[in-house]
Amino acid sequence: MGFGCLTTMDSLKTFEFDALGDNRGCSVQSPAMAMPSSLLWAVDIFGRVYTLATTGQYWELCKDGQLEFKRVSAVKQCCWGIACDHQVYTYVFSSDVPIRYQEETYENQRWNPVGGFCEKLMPSDRWQWSDVSGLKHQQLDSFTLPSPHWEWESDWYVDENIGGEPTEKGGWTYAIDFPATYTKDKKWNSCVRRRRWIRYRRYKSRDTWAKIISLEDPSQLPDPFNDISIGGWEITDEPAGRLSVWAVSLQGRVWYREDVCHHNPEGSLWSLVATPGEVVQISCGPYDLLWATLWEGQAIVREGIDRNNPHGISWTVVESPGSENGIMHVAVGVNVVWAVTKDRKVWFRRGVNSHNPCGTSWIEMVGEMMMVNVGLNDQVWGIACDDRAIYFRQGVTSSELSGKTWKAIVSGRESDRSQTGSSTSLLSAGCFFSDEVRDQANSIIQSDGDVSSDTESPRVPPNHADAPLSGAAVSSNENNADSQKEVGTHLAVDPLDSAQEEANSTSSSSEKAGLEKPESSVDQDTHPAELQWTNIDLKEAHKNPVLTSSAFRETSSVSSLGLFPVGIEEPYGTDEHPFWAWVSGGGCLVDLHSPLKWFTIQTGLSSSVQSLSLSITPAQTAAWRKQIFQQLSERTKRELENFRHYEQAVEQSVWVKTGTLQWWRSWKPHKWMDVRVALEQFTGSDGVRDSILFIYYMHHEEKKYIHVFLNEVTILVEVLNDSKHSFALYTPERTKQRWPIRLAAATEQEMHDWLALLSMCCCESRRIQGPPSHHAVWSVTCKGDIFVSEPSPELEAAPHLIPCDQMFWRQIGGHLRLIECNSQGIVWGIGYDHTTWVYTGGYGGGFIQGLASSADNIYMQSDVKCVYIYENQRWNPVTGYSSRGLPTDRYMWSDASGLQECTKVNTKPPSPQWSWVSDWYIDFNVSGGTDREGWQYAADFPASYHGHKTMKDFVRRRRWVRKCKIVTNGPWLEVPPITLWDISIIPSSAADEEDSIAVWAISDKGDVLCRLEVTQQNPAGTSWLHVGTDQPFISVSVGAFYQVWAIARDGSAFYRGSVSPKRPAGDCWYHIPSPQKQKLKQVSVGRTSVFALDKNGNLWYRQGITPSYPQGSSWDHVSNNIRKVSVGPLDQVWVIADKVQGSHSLSCGTVCHRKGVQPLEPKGLSWDYGIGGGWEHITVRGNATEAPKVALQDTSEEHLAKSLDPEDGENGRKGDQSKANVMVIEGQELDRNAVSC
Length: 1237
Description:
Oligomer: single chain
Distance between the termini: 44 Å
Mean pLDDT: 79
Radius of gyration: 35 Å
Strand content: 25-35%
């Protein structure tokens, strides 16, 4: 990427993006290995590397197959491996976002009385070309590519931006002397100046094995490597994107690869780490857990690994489980350690966690393995000794880290797909013309119930149990019927497929488990037969085997009959059984909610059935449907003939549901009261259903009640409360007062039942059903709940606007942080963990089930968010900083405001739906910066915090963070693999007929992206197109006619020129000056209007935008106390505002609508307050319904004059301060009845 100064228009700077000779940007199509799903990596005994996707069923050969590898270690974004030449290689997945690194250097000049500014500096000055500090000499020609895997994007260019403000031509910034504060304006005392030169390099070796080239001194080169392990990407408070790469050389020395991160995937150099002995193998977990094995059979554990010291501090020795057989192999995860001793026994380390990385004791597990590997979520894989097959450890959960049983992965290789077609015809003959095979298969399944459950079957070596017989051998063996039945007595149905077998096995034996080998039966309706073992794998008590070894030899000799019946070809062929040498699951995320396809053999039966179904022609299907319809019609006539003499029934039913809840009394004394509630639903003669909610309470020993007509309810919303499962019920009048009816249930399930019932009744009374329309208004609460409202044409019609507090909102399942839509039904959302989701067209989900939810298009959805608390300390002259503060100080453990005590113990997840997924750790990514221990310093509480200590700092604080996760469902599908920060969809109108829809986004790293091939039929699109920038961005918006505006992280605004359907990425950025002394954070573009929001909550309108000058001329202030803004396709303006004045309280996070927006008054006139508080995001970019044009009456001018903004005072009209600006008196406190959901 390169930026070069092209033109200057007044104070406007133009930058051009030219990537690899293409001004449109760099488009990278997502290849097969772009990881829409996570991958399991494995190496066979021939050194070939394979990958198996969690959503796939076949092993795929990795690219660059000519390389032979010994071992690999993988994470989500890359894989490192050691080839047979003992050299280290890395495989980085391709992505739509390139890996780019910015090189920079500064040109310094000093003013000379003779020639002005020149290159001649004083002897005490810095170098003419230096780094930002001036201490390092950096000329332009001194920068070289670190390895052949990089390439330059463009030549050097000058950065003409300083702190979000454009500089003069040439990019010079001025100061009094070196070093000092630089400004863009030249003054009389500006004696020095400097400018920054930038050049980008791009990592090009993606989707291929790239050799790690050592640039160190040859005498310091490490020995040839023997083992490698990568992890540490989630080290406590580790910068995002950093990896810890550890390697072991043939001489037994341990090496650490420095500076491996997202923008430097190959690292910089190898550092030697001293060890107490010669190391054989090493394993690194996602966090700070690192174990290694010694030649003597002991294990060593690295302690002291943290953000500031990724190498760790010291080693601790852990003895092997037994004195005779030492440890040969270890594998670590987050809180688990697995080991294999020299006698091939598998061991589990008990008591391992971040505070005790050494654990407490060893537990022997059943099974003999060559090696084991721990992946994400502490899932475990292993390679068995006998058959060299890969086994997956089932039943591993956070509560049972050791799992339950081993299960073999029997997936075929991609090259084997071509061999399955030849077996289809044989299978058809074997299935449909061989009753003997069918009877034999049924006998196997039926005999499973005869297995004794109170005794344990001895372990069968997999190489005997799985030895396949050829089809000819099986068919020629005519006297195997009896032995076939005997096999059935030792086989069982897959415990995952049979709940009854799982229950029986668990109840009978809970101390030991074995290896399971799936077998395929001929009948598709039957479950695969497997070897019977119990569930729990802790080898504490052995039981005597019931069967003799001779019986097992007889069984194993014919066990393949259950595995490969007549006509079924072996998946690997007779001589192609895969033998694995290594497996790595560090990048494999196994979802416990979705089943894997790794454990069933594809026999080709489904292909036969499919070919049979495809032989039915559409004409035959149509004839059958017509015949069935005629038969049903005749039957209906016959049935109705018997009831002709009955009168027509009139439905007038009444239905009542009662229950006990708690109700928040909104007058003094404010408290929760036990009440009886009754929901009465009745159906009128016109068929319209309506409902009334009665709440009965006692007041001064007198029974009273309040009632609410549900056709007047505008929203039902769950409310965050530490001690109550409560929800709020709003009506238009209560919305104005900010006083909803608050009810609480005893349990969360009871609350969700009432919410679902009340929501369904509200929708029935308003005749709303099915999915939202394309013009719906979407919103998100601060809790993450999603709400949608159907706008009426009068919502934007003047002069008789429908107040937005009368809008009805219904909930849609899912959990999001922000949401965007357009009028063609395209809806995208982003979760708190930056995962991207696209709307599937369904409705319901979450707690809304049954008839109120669509039967399809509902999928599982998860989200992860962070909970923050603050540790506060005050300086003491005797002891220094301590947790003892003054009586007037805040709590020593508190929230951000300091008004509420929040400790590590009493801080709970936001609601019972959330569960902790991490421990507390220090957050270093805090505004203002921190020191090495995460502290921020200030003169007093509260004040402006900074990351370094001064003599005037008497207090300090640091932020602790803990992650929690929610699992729900809703009409959303994930769009992998890039995580996003912001999203924008072009607000199409009803007249638009474009096939492709423009979707722009900002990644969580600040990259600008454009989504390709987004249509109504394919709302998720196909791939991302990267748009180059010279700094990270935080907000983007695409308006009508492909107007693209964006906000950079430093608060500056940019306009993207020449964007069109044929050039979706445009060609250049125009730097737009921000409002004076303000830093912007969000922008929203409509049809002709552009509104921006700064970091202080001020809303700005861009003046002077015309088709010939789309960048506009200046910013006009509109309002303050704004959190989010959304401009629709009709230039309508909706915001989320803070501190909105209600009748009784102040509300934070309120939906507000700008009234009076017209072509001659694009800024609008006043605010109309809607639902709130507790709202976080709103989008009206789908509401393209044109309002009927009604001429303003002369009598309305006085009403409009009263609602004008103070900024319009120059027009001779004075506005109402409380309605024009969302502003209140700062000293006024929030009312205790205000609801924050």
